[in-house]
Amino acid sequence: MNKILKTVGAAAFCLTLMTAFSSCEDYLDKEPDSDVSSDTPFKNFTNMQGYVEEIYNCIPDKAKCYWTTSWNLGDDEIMNPQAESDRVIQTQIDLGNFYAWQDNIQFWFAANKSGLDPTSNDAFNHRLAGHAWYCIAKCNKGLQEIDNYFTGTAEEKNLILGQLYFFRAWWHFEMMQFLGGLPYVDMVFSAGESPRLTRLSYTECADKAAEDFRRAADLLPVNWDNTTTGKKTLGKNELRINKITALAYLGKNYLWAASPLMQNGAQTGGTRTYDYSQDYARLAADALGEVISLVESGQTQYEFASFDYENIYDHKKASGVETSYSELFFTSGRGWLQPGGKEALLRGPSAGWSYTRFNFSRTFGPNQLCAQDNHIHQPTANYVRNYGMANGLPLDDPDSGWDPTHPFKNRDPRFYHDIVFDGVKYINADPDAADKSMKYAGLATGGSMRAVTNASRSGYFYQKLVPHTCQKYDSGSSDDYGPNPHSYIPYMRLADVYLMYAEACAVLGGPSGKSSKCTLSAADAINRLRDRVGAGHVADKFTGNAFMDEVRRERAVELAFEGFRFNDLQRWLLLTEPEYTVKTSQEFIRVSGADEKFFAENDPADAEVAEFHEEVIFTRNFDTKHYWFPLLRDDTYIYEGFEQNPGW
User: Fold this and answer.
1) Does residue 470 have a pLDDT over 70?
2) Under 8 Å CB-to-CB from 64, ≥6 apart: which residues?
3) Could you tell me if 361 and 466 are in contact, meaning their C-beta atoms sit under 8 angstroms apart?
């Protein structure tokens, strides 16, 4: 806590002086004259927007905040042994070493402040916890001083206030997800003050954040382009916070507060995984329903990306598609265009586009083909099991039609988009002799891509975030930069709003539950996502807890590998439960395609296999203390009453 208060106080002091505030150039591709003036930072909209944009600049790039990074901390992913020996955060979490979050520079959330610079345009210089208290202090200082100095129009003032309220809540909320309740800092302190702020419970902190998110939603427009002020920066408003983003986070904040962990406390056994707060769930449903109603009636700039493909295995979109599902996370041949399109609700600036090819995109396949650091992201077989059938049923449903001798046939279309399985044509070009055995993914037991040290230990790769064509033969140019590749994982996208709405409404009334703010039911919201990809609707037989299980499975598939799984298992009180602590591999023997001729002439989904089963790679030994990250030790020493999270 001492470090927290020192950081808040020092930041406030620096902001008070403002003798030589740094440039905000390039943060949101803004106008050159919007840098903060050295003498009057709060005087007018141009100056104050520059002040705010330093906060945008502090938003870390989850996937590219270091040479190689890790962001999937749940049961969803496993990496190879070199990544383990290099202490990537995922491996440290597997081992139960949750203290590693504090100084692991490969982790976007890290508290380590070494080398961090809020004014830097280098993606390597930003971490969430490392910047949070500084940005919160900036928000408080701006909110305090705007009435004293600001001379702009009412619209301009509302835009500034809305952003400041949003960010004050957002930085708190992001920390709360991992750390639990915190002091909610909503005032300015001088550098010499040592206030003893009370550590609030999670729900008390969420109530404070909700007030700020609601204020932001009431002050901000749906679309900056439709305001007098925003028209001055047409084409450069895409990343700016608006009413839709604020409402979506208001709903997320309430849903997290409603969740079993926050209502019942950390515990093992999984018996309370369906025990939500009805009151918070209703507030969540209303906020998220408001967003969905605006989207469904065409009153926003947001829409779902298209899932229309000429070749889904290669992520080759159909003719005429503006933004494909793949381009939510990765663009190529579009002049370094930041991914996300009209579905992304919150992204930070992405100045580190060059790191896409320098390292990030080369960590999703065999090191022999994707040579860079030997840190390979691989989906676990237990997680891939969430991808059900095209008819909408889970694999283990007796009516699903799933056949273990043809395990890849008739699966949810997102399976073919996201997952590289045995027999997928991995190299389109003509590979060298040493790599010919990898032209078609050899992911059966003992296959050409099953080397534990530098390929797949799980029997799968995933390509949701980076297409398999990023390997050395199909990348598009000798230096890998010719196609202008750019990757980014949004903090929130429209699909998540529908998923959260469905979950909140399921608490209120099962499949037919809905908010008074929206005409869609919980089942309707899930089915919107399934309609987008061409999967079957949620079956009518799923009611009660079984329907909530389907909502959660849909969340696992739609948001797969985007970094949300750990927090979901945590808030559902499932993080410690046996089904979610194992990481498994997929083992089987090829029947079709033993000589690969089959795969040259047929869809790999039609292949026959034998002895299809899972084997445990690793089991995590978690108990109740692992539901929260430990606070920094120094933060808990300043005064009695500010206690460490239980068990740490």
Assistant:
1) yes
2) 123, 350, 352, 355, 356, 359, 360, 487, 488
3) yes
Where helices occur in 322-374 by DSSP H, the ranges are: 355-358
Least-confidence region, from 20-24, 501-505, 613-617: 20-24
CATH code: domain of residue 27: 1.25.40
Domain count, the chain: 1
Domain presence at residue 400? no
Distances (CA, A) of 474 to 329, 363, 370: 19, 15, 11
Give the integer Cα–Cα distance in Å for 501 and 283: 10
What letter would DSSP give residue 616? Answer: E
Neighbours of 195 (CB within 10 A): 13
Give yes or no for a contact between 642 and 1, defined as CB atoms under 8 angstroms apart: yes
The string of pLDDT tens digits covering residues 342-364 is 999 999 999 767 889 888 999 99
Is residue 96 within 8 Å of 78, Cβ to Cβ?
no
Write a three-state SS string for 218-245. HHCCCCHHHCCCHHHHCCCCCCCCCHHH
What gap in Å lies between CA 60 and CA 347, rounded to an integer?
9
In contact, 617 and 583? CB cutoff 8 Å: yes
Residue 493 sits at φ, ψ, to 5 deg, of -135, 170
* 330 phi/psi in degrees, rounded to 5: -150, 125
Give CA angle at 201 (200, 202), nearest 5°. Answer: 115
Share of the chain above pLDDT 70, in %: 93
3 state DSSP class of 493: strand
pLDDT band at 65 (very low <50, low <70, confident <90, very high): very high
C-alpha to C-alpha distance for 294 and 285, rounded to whole angstroms: 14
CA dihedral 547, 552, 555, 560 (to 10 degrees): -140
Q: How far is it, in rounded angstroms, from Cα 558 to Cα 500? A: 12
Within a domain: residue 127? yes
If 0-12 CB within 10 Å is exposed, 13-18 middle and 19+ buried, where does residue 82 land? Answer: middle
- Helix count and strand count (H, E) for the chain: 19, 12
Question: What pLDDT score does 15 carry?
Answer: 43
Q: What is the mean pLDDT of the chain?
A: 92
User: 641 burial class (0-12, 13-18, 19+ CB within 10 angstroms)?
Assistant: exposed
Q: How many whole angstroms separate alpha carbon 291 and alpha carbon 295? A: 6
Whole domain around residue 216: which residue ranges? 2-65+108-241
CA 537 to each of CA 270, 292, 512, 532, 541: distance values in angstroms, whole numbers, following the listed order = 28, 19, 14, 11, 11
pLDDT for 27 equals 60
Phi–psi pair at 331, nearest 5 degrees: -120, 150
The tokens for 538 are 């949620």
With 0.90 as the threshold, say if the pTM is over it.
Answer: yes
Neighbours of 160 (CB within 10 A): 23
What's the token pair of residue 106? 């490969």
CA angle 526, 530, 533 (to 5 degrees): 150
Contact between 206 and 277 under an 8 Å Cβ cutoff? The reply is: no
DSSP string, 27-85: SSS--GGGSPPSS-TTSSHHHHHHHHHHHHHTS--TTSSSSS-----SSSEE--HHHHH
Establish if 164 belongs to a structural domain. Answer: yes
Query: Is residue 301, in this structure, part of any structural domain at all?
Result: no
